[in-house]
Write a structure and sequence with these properties.
Blueprint lengths: L10 E7 L7 H12 L3 E6 L6 H13 L16 H12 L9 E3 H14 L6 E7 L2 E3 L4
Parallel strand pairs: 1-2, 1-4, 3-5
Helix pairs in contact: 2-3
């Protein structure tokens, strides 16, 4: 199969991250189903399935992909303990108000994809994450 051609999904899974300021995920799902004729499921908070033991690992990954200087390309570094602690609090509080932290979009997507995969991602599913988190990429 061509890497750019994917089958039509059998279901759309809708995830959320943080305080979405009243965004109605159910209405969005109904709209998508109406337009695509593909049923949807509201999966809730993207972090809800993380085991207590895995919170530290995910927090470290998120802290590591923070962008310190948006004017420069992302540089891998060891995160500060305060950054890891912030991420742990954010993961554990579904109503966390996200503010002003920029993450490398490619690495952020990989972390989120891994979380979804751990919940039993099927190749026939389409997963959409609604977030107000800032992330970006650089021209290659």
């Amino acid at each position: 199969m061509n890497d750019f051609i994917r089958p039509i999904p059998s279901i759309i899974d809708l995830y959320e991250e943080g305080d979405l300021n009243g965004l109605n995920i159910s209405e969005l799902g109904q709209y998508l189903e109406e337009k695509t004729h593909i049923p949807f499921r509201i999966q809730g908070n993207i972090y809800k399935g993380i085991s207590k033991g895995n919170i530290q690992v995910v927090a470290e990954k998120l802290a590591k992909v923070r962008v310190r200087d948006p004017a420069r390309r992302y540089v891998s570094r060891i995160p500060l303990q305060a950054e890891v602690d912030y991420e742990k609090r954010r993961i554990q509080d579904p109503d966390w108000k996200i503010f002003g932290i920029l993450y490398d979009g490619v690495f952020y997507q990989n972390i989120i994809s891994d979380l979804i995969s751990e919940c039993g991602l099927d190749l026939g599913d389409c997963s959409i994450l609604f977030t107000n988190q800032l992330f970006g990429t650089w021209d290659r």
